[in-house]
Design brief:
Helix content is about 40%, strand content about 20%. It has helices at about 1-15, 20-35, 40-45, 50-90, 110-125, 135-140, 170-180, 225-240, 290-295, 315-320, 335; strands at about 125-130, 135, 160, 165, 185-195, 210-220, 245-250, 255-265, 280-290, 305-310. The strands form 2 sheets. Strands 1-5-6-10-9-8-7 form a 7-stranded mixed β-sheet, with helices on both faces. The protein has a 3-stranded antiparallel β-sheet with strand order 2-4-3.
Length: about 350
């Protein structure tokens, strides 16, 4: 029996040493130490031995189990360590290789124009004001001297939610709210944002576009202040010492009202295809705030005056960047946007 156990120990050590996987190792463990192992075959003959021989065989069997289990655990650790090293080798990262370039976005051209305008006007002491895009008829029209039935409403009666609520057609309602909140005190604001009108969708029109309107109300505010402000605006946008000119016009919420042209920044007034040979490009509408608008907001029309203006952000961007189709701003074509 002793010789058999010594031979079995040698066989176990030899076979365990050549095992390469945990699965095979577990099978070897069952083969040498399990219920149907060779050890159990030897132990089954103990009943035929004397008491002293059984005691000796039991001691040898326990020593066999201990040695084989230690060998198995040593081999298990060796296999696991090899597996870890193999995995590390397979997943190794060469930190000396150049990294993958991460795509970074840029500002949308319309947002670039808005930020330029905001920077310019903040430098002149203006505040930035925002308001809801779903607006009441009261603030969108009536508080701006556009009562129900006024003919100037026709081109702006657009997207109504119900009888008294609509998508704002200009950012002027923000001015109405601001005047009411100011309670008769001076105001100096710009209000950029999206507006909505029932326009045809073509190269120069869209049912949704962006505006930046400005409003100044105070004592002794004159048309000269308006002209100086808009001259600074033109220089900010087009980065050049360009002249501007006023042409008489009509807006219900300003009196007098003007259309404002800027000297063509491409030909400097000589005439070219961009300005259609005139040397001038129309950029915005403006005027002195109508006394009725001031009175409805609680201002003394004999003490306070003001001016207002509104510029289309898409129009400025199209002129500045040479874009010929307003729809390019809204289709999210990366080939277009990457240019900016």
């Amino acid at each position: 029996m002793k010789d058999q156990l010594e031979k079995l120990t040698e066989d176990a050590f030899c076979e365990i040493e050549h095992v390469e996987t945990i699965h095979d190792l577990n099978e070897k463990k069952a083969s040498f130490l399990g219920k149907k192992s060779k050890l159990q075959e030897i132990m089954s003959k103990m009943k035929d031995l004397t008491a002293e021989a059984r005691k000796e065989l039991g001691l040898l069997a326990n020593q066999f189990k201990i040695k084989v289990e230690e060998k198995i655990e040593t081999k298990r650790k060796e296999i696991e360590d090899k597996a870890v090293l193999k995995k590390l080798e397979e997943e190794k990262i060469d930190v000396t290789l150049p990294g993958k370039k991460i795509k970074t976005g840029t500002l949308h051209p319309l947002m670039s124009i808005i930020e330029e305008l905001e920077d310019a006007f903040i430098g002149m002491g203006y505040q930035i004001k925002e308001g809801p895009e779903v607006e009441e008829d009261l603030y969108n029209f009536e508080m701006l001297n556009l009562p129900k039935g006024h003919p100037a409403r026709e081109m702006q009666d657009s997207f109504y939610i119900n009888e008294t609520t609509l998508l704002r057609t200009h950012t002027s309602p923000v001015q109405a709210h601001t005047l009411l909140e100011a309670k008769g005190k001076p105001v100096k604001i710009i209000c950029p944002g999206k507006v909505y009108r029932r326009d045809a969708d073509d190269a120069t029109h869209s049912h949704q576009f962006m505006q930046c309107e400005g409003l100044v109300v105070g004592e002794n505010v004159t048309m000269a202040d308006l002209k100086g402000t808009l001259t600074h605006l033109a220089h900010t946008i087009f980065k050049d010492e360009l002249e501007i000119r006023f042409r008489p016009s009509f807006f219900p919420f300003t009196e007098p009202s003007v259309e404002v042209d800027v000297q063509c920044f491409k030909c400097k007034g000589k005439g070219c295809s961009l300005c259609k040979g005139s040397g001038w490009i129309e950029i915005l509408g403006a005027g002195m705030v109508h006394p009725n608008v001031l009175e409805m907001a609680g201002y003394d029309r004999n003490k306070y005056q003001g001016f207002a203006f509104g510029v289309g952000i898409e129009r400025i961007a199209m002129l500045k960047y040479g874009i010929d189709d307003i729809r390019q701003f809204y289709i999210n074509d990366e080939r277009f946007l990457k240019q900016f």
